[in-house]
Amino acid sequence: MKKLVEQHAFDAFRALAGRRGQPGARLIEALAEAASEQAEGPEGWAPEVARRFGLPAAAGLGPATFFADLAVPHGQRHVRVCGATACFAAQGGRHLPAIEDALGVTADGDLNGESDVSLQSVRCLGYCYAGPACLDGEIPCVGPDVAAQVAGRVRPSAPPIPAADATGEPVVLAGIVAGEAPWRTWTETVGRHSPEQVRSEVAASGLRGRGGAGFPVAAKWTAAGGSPETVVIANGDEGDPGSYADRLLMEVDPARVLEGLALACFACGARRG
After folding, report:
1. Plot region of 175 (φ>0 → left; ψ -120 to 50 → alpha; else → beta)
2. What is the pLDDT of residues 83-118, one digit of tens each?
3. 185, 203: one domain
4. Is the domain of 61 the same as that of 83?
5. What whole-number distance in Å separates Cα of residue 140 and Cα of residue 129?
6. Percent of the chain at pLDDT above 70?
7. Is residue 156 situated within a structural domain?
8. Is residue 165 part of a domain?
9. What is the extent of the structural domain holding 83?
10. How far apart are CA 242 and CA 125, in angstroms?
């Protein structure tokens, strides 16, 4: 992973953080660097990293224990296995002990001293549609035979993200950009309806947020519209069936995501997003 990062001369996110970033942005980078140099858990090094930024120990321990890649000591070969809902349901969780047996190490951060292999259970790797899944370093291993892939008995493989079907237009992909003109809904809506009408239509649909509270979207938009200045922000989420679709939509049909953001701006009077 370190060699892969070093090959890229320009990192847009780092450049942006350098110009506009707050100390917290640089803190995460410093924590990642410290984690790559340590063999112990974050309790031993994260507080000191935070102090270098003039922050309390909790500011370092929080992200260092929350982000999976920072929390567990890594071996020379580090395998991350998905334990989130979709991958667990694919085989009833049996893929995890199978991978543990294949590697001879448990998914708790301990290293296999003979081969310097580590195994880590994480929440989502983006293969909810084809799990169970794991990442062997940066190599995806996906499918019912994932343990055999990790063991080297089967070539590692990951199915491509479904984007087209030569047999016709599947219902689940109806309306993709390749099948209809993008921004058609935007043109029809803005030309014929007011923001209030859009909010009423969304309210009638019963659309709710994907957060734990399931707050009605129309109520959110109405409240946002009463603010002096409203900015619409898209939060791409992951980890469970339904929310993973955010990534699938962004990769396969980005115009639909942008169109939805534009409609949200229109509905709540935002001029930026």
Report:
1. left
2. 888 888 888 889 999 999 998 888 866 665 566 888
3. yes
4. no
5. 14
6. 71
7. no
8. no
9. 77-151
10. 14
* Cα dihedral sign, 154-160-165-170: positive
Express each pLDDT in 125-167 by its tens digit. Answer: 888 888 899 998 889 999 999 999 999 998 998 877 655 555 5
What DSSP element (H or E) covers 121?
strand 117-122
- pLDDT tens string 181-198: 678 888 888 888 888 888
Specify whether 139 is located in the same domain as 208: no
- Burial string for 109-134 (b: 16+ CB within 10 Å, else e) reads bebeeeeebbbbbbebbbbbebbbbb
pTM of whole model > 0.70?
A: no
Q: How confident is the model at residue 23 (pLDDT cuts 50, 70, 90)?
A: low
The structure tokens listed for 54 are 């003039």
Contact 174, 185 (CB under 8 A): no
pLDDT average, residue stretch 56-69: 81
| Nearest 10 degrees: Cα torsion 208, 213, 218, 224 | -140
DSSP state of 118: E
Q: Are residues 175 and 263 in the same domain?
A: yes
Q: Which two tokens stand for residue 184?
A: 């058609």
Tokens of 207: 């659309």
Please check whether residues 247 and 176 belong to one and the same domain. yes
Instruction: Provide the token pair at 175.
Output: 């309306």
Number of domains in the chain: 3
Residues 255, 190 within the same domain: yes
Q: What is the distance between the alpha carbons of residues 256 and 268, in angstroms, rounded to a whole number? A: 19
